[in-house]
């Protein structure tokens, strides 16, 4: 498998977002580590035939679907050994930001997290910017 790992502009935050393109399957992912926006293009799988094969049009072309998810914020946790874990914040977490921050701090304390390489953001739609919280 050959993939191109690169960066592209986040359409929501307009900063740098991580991207990954699979040259064999033509599938594509974009993930913003600031606002939590994500988008991806995936091939439909052939569920009736071989599960590893893609669903094709009558003239043999791969059928793709585009998905995107608005960003409400993001978290990045880095262990002291250097392993990183990223996730987007869901819309329901915005209703109680103090609870979200408290949960983030609790996770940082419970796990072996490097506080200098971990963060939580909350997307501010009005300011078109992300508020940053550090553990
Ligand atoms: Zn973004």
How does the SSE layout of this entry go?
Layout: E1 3-9, E2 16-22, E3 28-31, E4 38-43, E5 64-69, E6 73-78, E7 84-88, H1 97-110, E8 119-124, E9 129-133
Antiparallel strand pairs: 1-2, 2-3, 3-4, 4-5, 6-7, 6-8, 8-9
Bound molecules: zinc ion.
Which geometry do the CA atoms define? elongated
Bound molecules: zinc ion
Q: Tell me about the biggest sheet?
A: 5 strands, antiparallel
CA-to-CA gap between the ends?
37 Å
Question: Percent of residues in beta strands?
Answer: 35-45%
Q: What's the multimeric state?
A: single chain
Portion of residues in helices?
10-25%
User: Radius of gyration in whole Å, from Cα?
Assistant: 18 Å
So how many helices?
A: 1
Description:
The protein is mainly β. It folds into two domains: about 5-70; about 75-135. About 10% of the residues lie in helices and about 40% in strands. The protein has a five-stranded antiparallel beta sheet, with no helix packed on it. It has a four-stranded antiparallel beta sheet with strand order 7-6-8-9, covered by helices on one side. A hairpin with a 5-residue loop joins strand 6 and strand 7 (about 85-90). The relative contact order is 0.16. Zinc ion binds near residues 17, 32, 34 and 71.
